[in-house]
Amino acid sequence: MKKVGIRFKKTGKLSFYLTDIDDISLSENVVADTEKGEELGVVAKIVEPLEDETLESIKRVATPQDIQTQKEMDEKAKEALAFCKEEAKKLELDMKVLTAEYTLDGTKLTIYFVSEDRVDFRELVKIIASKYRARIELRQIGPRDEVKEYPTLGMCGKEVCCRSYLQNFEPVTIKMAKEQGLQINMSKLSGACGKLMCCLRYEEDTYKENLKKLPKIGEIVKVKGEKEKGKVAGVDILKCQVKVRFNYDSEDEDRYETYPVSELKWTPKQPKKEEVEDEVDEIVE
User: Where are the domains of the chain?
Assistant: First the structure.
Protein backbone atom coordinates (compact mmCIF):
# COMPACT_ATOMS: atom_id res chain seq x y z
CA MET A 1 0.00 0.00 0.00
CA LYS A 2 1.29 3.48 -0.92
CA LYS A 3 0.28 6.98 0.07
CA VAL A 4 0.02 9.42 -2.84
CA GLY A 5 -0.41 13.18 -2.89
CA ILE A 6 -2.81 14.22 -5.65
CA ARG A 7 -3.03 17.72 -7.07
CA PHE A 8 -6.31 18.54 -8.82
CA LYS A 9 -5.18 22.03 -9.92
CA LYS A 10 -1.79 23.27 -11.09
CA THR A 11 -1.03 25.11 -7.85
CA GLY A 12 -3.68 23.43 -5.70
CA LYS A 13 -3.02 21.87 -2.31
CA LEU A 14 -2.09 18.22 -2.11
CA SER A 15 -4.83 15.76 -1.18
CA PHE A 16 -3.59 12.42 0.11
CA TYR A 17 -5.00 9.02 -0.81
CA LEU A 18 -3.98 5.38 -0.48
CA THR A 19 -3.43 3.03 -3.39
CA ASP A 20 -2.40 -0.58 -3.88
CA ILE A 21 -1.20 0.06 -7.44
CA ASP A 22 2.47 -0.95 -7.23
CA ASP A 23 3.68 0.69 -10.41
CA ILE A 24 1.99 4.05 -9.90
CA SER A 25 4.36 6.91 -10.75
CA LEU A 26 4.76 10.66 -10.36
CA SER A 27 2.90 12.85 -12.88
CA GLU A 28 0.45 10.03 -13.57
CA ASN A 29 -3.19 10.99 -14.09
CA VAL A 30 -5.58 9.36 -11.63
CA VAL A 31 -9.26 9.55 -10.74
CA ALA A 32 -10.35 10.07 -7.13
CA ASP A 33 -13.43 11.07 -5.17
CA THR A 34 -13.36 14.54 -3.59
CA GLU A 35 -15.85 16.65 -1.68
CA LYS A 36 -17.01 17.97 -5.06
CA GLY A 37 -17.35 14.58 -6.73
CA GLU A 38 -15.21 12.48 -9.02
CA GLU A 39 -12.18 14.45 -10.23
CA LEU A 40 -9.12 13.96 -12.39
CA GLY A 41 -5.80 14.74 -10.71
CA VAL A 42 -2.06 14.27 -11.04
CA VAL A 43 0.21 12.31 -8.70
CA ALA A 44 2.65 14.85 -7.21
CA LYS A 45 4.05 12.88 -4.28
CA ILE A 46 4.50 9.23 -3.26
CA VAL A 47 5.36 8.30 0.34
CA GLU A 48 5.00 5.39 2.71
CA PRO A 49 1.77 5.55 4.73
CA LEU A 50 1.82 5.74 8.51
CA GLU A 51 0.84 2.62 10.40
CA ASP A 52 -2.94 2.22 10.58
CA GLU A 53 -3.44 5.43 8.60
CA THR A 54 -6.99 5.74 7.31
CA LEU A 55 -7.40 7.55 4.01
CA GLU A 56 -9.63 7.12 1.02
CA SER A 57 -8.22 5.17 -1.89
CA ILE A 58 -7.91 6.51 -5.41
CA LYS A 59 -10.46 4.97 -7.77
CA ARG A 60 -8.16 4.17 -10.68
CA VAL A 61 -5.40 5.31 -12.95
CA ALA A 62 -6.99 7.59 -15.55
CA THR A 63 -7.86 5.94 -18.86
CA PRO A 64 -7.77 7.62 -22.28
CA GLN A 65 -11.55 7.84 -21.97
CA ASP A 66 -11.18 9.74 -18.66
CA ILE A 67 -8.81 12.22 -20.31
CA GLN A 68 -11.25 12.73 -23.17
CA THR A 69 -14.17 13.14 -20.75
CA GLN A 70 -12.24 15.80 -18.84
CA LYS A 71 -11.66 17.74 -22.05
CA GLU A 72 -15.39 17.56 -22.79
CA MET A 73 -16.20 18.76 -19.25
CA ASP A 74 -13.76 21.68 -19.68
CA GLU A 75 -15.53 22.73 -22.88
CA LYS A 76 -18.89 22.41 -21.19
CA ALA A 77 -17.62 24.54 -18.31
CA LYS A 78 -16.60 27.29 -20.75
CA GLU A 79 -20.12 27.30 -22.15
CA ALA A 80 -21.59 27.46 -18.63
CA LEU A 81 -19.24 30.31 -17.75
CA ALA A 82 -20.40 32.40 -20.69
CA PHE A 83 -24.03 31.69 -19.80
CA CYS A 84 -23.46 32.63 -16.15
CA LYS A 85 -21.82 35.93 -17.11
CA GLU A 86 -24.75 36.79 -19.35
CA GLU A 87 -27.38 35.95 -16.74
CA ALA A 88 -25.52 37.79 -13.96
CA LYS A 89 -25.49 40.88 -16.16
CA LYS A 90 -29.23 40.56 -16.82
CA LEU A 91 -29.88 40.29 -13.08
CA GLU A 92 -27.60 43.33 -12.51
CA LEU A 93 -25.54 41.48 -9.91
CA ASP A 94 -22.45 43.29 -8.66
CA MET A 95 -20.05 40.42 -9.30
CA LYS A 96 -17.23 39.52 -11.68
CA VAL A 97 -17.58 35.92 -12.85
CA LEU A 98 -14.12 34.47 -13.41
CA THR A 99 -14.08 30.77 -14.16
CA ALA A 100 -16.11 27.59 -14.00
CA GLU A 101 -15.27 23.90 -13.62
CA TYR A 102 -17.12 20.59 -13.79
CA THR A 103 -16.27 17.47 -11.89
CA LEU A 104 -15.22 14.55 -14.08
CA ASP A 105 -18.56 12.81 -13.60
CA GLY A 106 -20.43 16.02 -14.53
CA THR A 107 -22.50 16.00 -11.34
CA LYS A 108 -21.30 19.36 -9.99
CA LEU A 109 -20.57 22.72 -11.57
CA THR A 110 -18.53 25.22 -9.52
CA ILE A 111 -18.41 28.86 -10.61
CA TYR A 112 -15.90 31.29 -9.08
CA PHE A 113 -16.47 35.04 -8.83
CA VAL A 114 -15.16 38.13 -7.06
CA SER A 115 -17.10 40.96 -5.51
CA GLU A 116 -16.41 43.67 -2.97
CA ASP A 117 -19.69 42.93 -1.19
CA ARG A 118 -21.92 39.98 -0.43
CA VAL A 119 -24.04 38.98 -3.41
CA ASP A 120 -27.51 37.45 -3.34
CA PHE A 121 -27.09 35.00 -6.22
CA ARG A 122 -29.95 32.62 -5.37
CA GLU A 123 -31.93 33.54 -8.48
CA LEU A 124 -28.83 33.08 -10.62
CA VAL A 125 -28.25 29.59 -9.19
CA LYS A 126 -31.84 28.61 -10.04
CA ILE A 127 -31.40 29.76 -13.63
CA ILE A 128 -28.11 27.91 -14.10
CA ALA A 129 -29.39 24.73 -12.43
CA SER A 130 -32.50 24.64 -14.64
CA LYS A 131 -30.29 24.73 -17.74
CA TYR A 132 -27.42 22.42 -16.77
CA ARG A 133 -29.14 19.94 -14.43
CA ALA A 134 -26.23 19.64 -11.99
CA ARG A 135 -25.38 20.67 -8.47
CA ILE A 136 -24.37 24.33 -8.69
CA GLU A 137 -21.97 26.12 -6.36
CA LEU A 138 -21.06 29.79 -6.70
CA ARG A 139 -17.90 30.45 -4.73
CA GLN A 140 -16.66 33.94 -3.90
CA ILE A 141 -12.86 34.27 -3.88
CA GLY A 142 -10.44 37.04 -2.90
CA PRO A 143 -8.05 39.22 -4.95
CA ARG A 144 -5.10 36.86 -4.49
CA ASP A 145 -7.07 33.89 -5.80
CA GLU A 146 -8.34 36.00 -8.67
CA VAL A 147 -4.82 36.68 -9.97
CA LYS A 148 -4.18 32.92 -10.17
CA GLU A 149 -6.78 32.67 -12.92
CA TYR A 150 -4.85 34.84 -15.41
CA PRO A 151 -1.39 34.65 -17.01
CA THR A 152 0.04 37.61 -15.06
CA LEU A 153 3.60 38.91 -14.72
CA GLY A 154 4.94 40.14 -11.40
CA MET A 155 7.26 43.11 -10.86
CA CYS A 156 10.24 40.75 -11.30
CA GLY A 157 9.18 40.04 -14.89
CA LYS A 158 8.27 36.42 -14.18
CA GLU A 159 4.84 34.85 -13.90
CA VAL A 160 3.30 35.55 -10.50
CA CYS A 161 4.26 32.97 -7.88
CA CYS A 162 0.67 32.10 -6.97
CA ARG A 163 0.00 30.94 -10.53
CA SER A 164 3.32 29.21 -11.21
CA TYR A 165 4.03 27.26 -8.04
CA LEU A 166 2.86 28.85 -4.76
CA GLN A 167 0.31 26.55 -3.11
CA ASN A 168 -0.47 28.23 0.21
CA PHE A 169 -1.03 31.90 0.97
CA GLU A 170 0.68 33.04 4.17
CA PRO A 171 0.15 36.35 5.96
CA VAL A 172 2.34 39.23 4.73
CA THR A 173 2.72 42.40 6.83
CA ILE A 174 4.09 45.92 6.56
CA LYS A 175 6.42 45.04 9.43
CA MET A 176 8.23 42.56 7.14
CA ALA A 177 8.99 45.36 4.68
CA LYS A 178 10.28 47.56 7.52
CA GLU A 179 12.55 44.80 8.82
CA GLN A 180 13.99 44.35 5.33
CA GLY A 181 14.84 48.04 5.12
CA LEU A 182 12.40 48.74 2.31
CA GLN A 183 10.79 52.12 1.74
CA ILE A 184 7.12 51.93 2.63
CA ASN A 185 5.66 52.74 -0.77
CA MET A 186 2.52 50.67 -1.29
CA SER A 187 2.61 51.03 -5.08
CA LYS A 188 6.03 49.36 -5.13
CA LEU A 189 5.32 46.77 -2.42
CA SER A 190 1.99 45.62 -3.85
CA GLY A 191 1.62 42.74 -6.27
CA ALA A 192 -0.74 42.30 -9.20
CA CYS A 193 -3.57 41.51 -6.77
CA GLY A 194 -3.19 44.89 -5.05
CA LYS A 195 -2.03 43.27 -1.80
CA LEU A 196 1.47 43.10 -0.34
CA MET A 197 3.76 40.90 -2.44
CA CYS A 198 4.07 37.31 -1.25
CA CYS A 199 7.84 37.39 -1.88
CA LEU A 200 8.27 39.71 1.13
CA ARG A 201 7.95 36.57 3.25
CA TYR A 202 10.52 34.45 1.43
CA GLU A 203 13.60 35.89 3.20
CA GLU A 204 11.81 37.10 6.32
CA ASP A 205 13.34 34.46 8.62
CA THR A 206 16.86 35.35 7.44
CA TYR A 207 16.27 39.06 8.01
CA LYS A 208 14.84 38.44 11.49
CA GLU A 209 17.77 36.24 12.49
CA ASN A 210 20.38 38.73 11.22
CA LEU A 211 18.66 41.71 12.83
CA LYS A 212 19.21 40.08 16.24
CA LYS A 213 22.97 40.25 15.63
CA LEU A 214 23.08 43.88 14.48
CA PRO A 215 23.07 47.18 16.41
CA LYS A 216 20.37 49.69 15.64
CA ILE A 217 21.01 52.89 13.70
CA GLY A 218 22.12 55.60 16.12
CA GLU A 219 23.69 53.25 18.67
CA ILE A 220 27.24 53.90 19.87
CA VAL A 221 29.69 51.10 19.11
CA LYS A 222 33.29 50.24 19.91
CA VAL A 223 35.22 49.06 16.83
CA LYS A 224 38.10 46.63 17.04
CA GLY A 225 41.33 48.49 16.21
CA GLU A 226 39.78 51.97 16.59
CA LYS A 227 40.56 54.22 19.58
CA GLU A 228 37.38 56.25 19.42
CA LYS A 229 33.83 55.05 19.44
CA GLY A 230 31.50 55.51 16.50
CA LYS A 231 27.81 55.85 15.82
CA VAL A 232 25.91 53.39 13.63
CA ALA A 233 24.92 55.16 10.41
CA GLY A 234 23.55 52.19 8.48
CA VAL A 235 23.35 48.41 8.37
CA ASP A 236 23.48 45.81 5.60
CA ILE A 237 21.17 43.18 7.03
CA LEU A 238 21.96 40.34 4.63
CA LYS A 239 25.75 40.83 4.75
CA CYS A 240 25.73 41.56 8.50
CA GLN A 241 27.83 44.67 7.94
CA VAL A 242 27.60 47.99 9.76
CA LYS A 243 28.42 51.48 8.50
CA VAL A 244 29.98 53.48 11.35
CA ARG A 245 30.29 57.27 11.57
CA PHE A 246 33.29 58.66 13.46
CA ASN A 247 33.85 62.21 14.74
CA TYR A 248 30.08 62.54 15.17
CA ASP A 249 30.43 64.74 18.30
CA SER A 250 33.37 66.88 17.24
CA GLU A 251 34.08 69.65 14.76
CA ASP A 252 36.29 67.36 12.67
CA GLU A 253 34.99 66.11 9.35
CA ASP A 254 32.87 62.99 9.66
CA ARG A 255 34.53 59.72 8.72
CA TYR A 256 32.55 56.68 7.63
CA GLU A 257 33.81 53.10 7.63
CA THR A 258 32.07 49.75 7.09
CA TYR A 259 32.81 46.74 9.31
CA PRO A 260 31.51 43.20 9.79
CA VAL A 261 29.40 43.02 12.93
CA SER A 262 31.92 40.60 14.48
CA GLU A 263 34.35 43.54 14.91
CA LEU A 264 31.90 45.63 16.91
CA LYS A 265 30.94 45.81 20.56
CA TRP A 266 28.01 47.75 21.97
CA THR A 267 25.46 47.81 24.76
CA PRO A 268 21.97 47.45 23.26
CA LYS A 269 19.59 50.25 24.14
CA GLN A 270 16.50 49.37 26.10
CA PRO A 271 13.47 49.97 23.82
CA LYS A 272 11.12 52.75 24.79
CA LYS A 273 7.62 51.86 25.88
CA GLU A 274 6.07 52.99 22.58
CA GLU A 275 8.61 50.87 20.64
CA VAL A 276 7.57 47.63 22.31
CA GLU A 277 3.87 48.17 21.73
CA ASP A 278 2.40 46.11 18.94
CA GLU A 279 2.46 47.83 15.58
CA VAL A 280 -0.65 48.05 13.45
CA ASP A 281 0.33 46.10 10.34
CA GLU A 282 -1.58 45.52 7.14
CA ILE A 283 -2.05 41.79 6.90
CA VAL A 284 -2.79 40.18 3.55
CA GLU A 285 -5.05 37.19 3.93
Answer: 2-62, 67-141, 169-208, 214-265
